[in-house]
Amino acid sequence: MENTQEIVRKKRALSCIQPTGIPTLGNYLGALRNWVDLQDELECFFAVADLHAITVRQEPAKLRQHTYEMFALLMAIGLDPEKSLLFVQSQVPTHTELSWLLSCNTQFGELSRMTQFKDKSQKHADNINLGLFAYPTLMAADILLYQPEFVPVGADQKQHCELTRDIATRFNGQYGQTFTVPEPYIMKTGARVRSLQEPTKKMSKSDENQNSFISLQDDKDTIIRKFKRAVTDSEACVRYAEGKDGINNLMEIYAAVTDKSLEAIEAEFAGRGYGDFKLAVGEAVAAELAPIQERFATLMKDKAQLDALMKVGAERAYLVSRRTVEKAKKRMGFLLTK
Ligand code: TYM
């Protein structure tokens, strides 16, 4: 019989998260949770983007601790290092290397249009550093190194993903096919979880008002209290409609956590007040987070094991990514050691 068997590589996904503190429910619903769903279908690469974190000032001891915590959290949410490649960005030197090559193929004007740069440079006006400006080229390097088809992120990262596509397309056009041009992969529910206190803004762990976000480490009482205090409106009717940003946000969170449709949620709470609804959202979120918190606490007890897993991840990531850097360098005219 003719051997028609071909080695077809699984499609790939890559994404990263910054270790800038315990992530929020926004990070979880917008990104992390979807990563777990992808790991059985795709060949997945997930990293802790510690190099991105230093675009704003970090205390070294905290950065170290947060990097361990984020790595442990990736496993606590259900990512399995046997199935997905988990690593820490700064432990894989190809990221900074490709970033430089891409920087020289990215225009000042393109980077100036990035809304995150505009927001962050306003927020950190005393530290508008070169890295903050060049941040998207490092992100493009993170992605393109692994030749993924998909980049699962929340809606706020869409602009950076589009810039990555532009950089890859331009590079391929100029030097020949080098990079897979990836698609952002954004879920419908949970892609833009908003602040509980100012529901027109995104939920963010750097928000000074602790009541505005749910941290993945919050205990049940804290979660319920924060939802109780969430800003809503005076209509007292659980329905999804324009102008009801607070209720829309809570409904989206509840929908994402329970897998119920917005219509089913409206029916469930018909004739009931916001108090009941907020309690139900709080309880559903607390129930989703409890097992993650338990696994996280266990994983954090063994830093030697985390170090060992990081090492394996970094070595494997280096092997994959080195091929892309070498290809890019060759295409650009650099001499490789022989
Ligand atoms: P970061 O660390 O800010 O956020 C990690 C992921 O969480 C998503 N996210 C949200 N989703 C829904 N609602 C929210 N309120 C919310 N807040 C955050 C983000 O969209 C993201 O998917 N630059 C990236 C990290 C990065 C990266 C990469 C991502 C570095 N290199 C390569 C993808 C590919 C960042 O700062 O995400």
Describe the structure.
The two termini are 42 Å apart. Helices cover 53% and strands 7% of the residues. With 338 residues, it is mainly alpha-helical. The longest helix has 30 residues. α1 links the parallel β1 and β2. The site of tryptophanyl-5'AMP has 24 residues, from β1, α1 and α7.
**Unreliable stretches, pLDDT < 50, 5 or more residues?**
none
Give the strand line-up of the largest sheet: 1-2-3
Q: Biggest β-sheet, characterized?
A: 3 strands, parallel
Mean residue pLDDT: 95
* Helical content (DSSP H or I, runs of 4+): 40-55%
What proportion strand? 5-15%
**What structural class is derived from the secondary structure elements?**
mainly alpha
For the secondary structure, the number of strands is 5
Give Rg in angstroms.
21 Å
Distance between the termini: 42 Å
Helices, by number, come to: 13
SSE map:
Blueprint: E1 12-17, H1 25-38, E2 43-48, H2 50-53, H3 60-76, E3 85-88, H4 94-103, H5 108-112, H6 115-123, H7 130-144, E4 150-152, H8 158-175, E5 183-185, H9 220-228, H10 245-258, H11 262-268, H12 274-300, H13 303-332
Parallel strand pairs: 1-2, 2-3, 4-5
Helix pairs in contact: 3-12, 4-7, 4-13, 7-8, 9-12, 10-12
Key structural traits:
mainly alpha; 13 helices; 338 residues; globular; two-stranded parallel sheet; binds tryptophanyl-5'AMP; single chain; three-stranded parallel β-sheet
Quick structural overview:
By secondary structure, the chain is mainly alpha-helical.
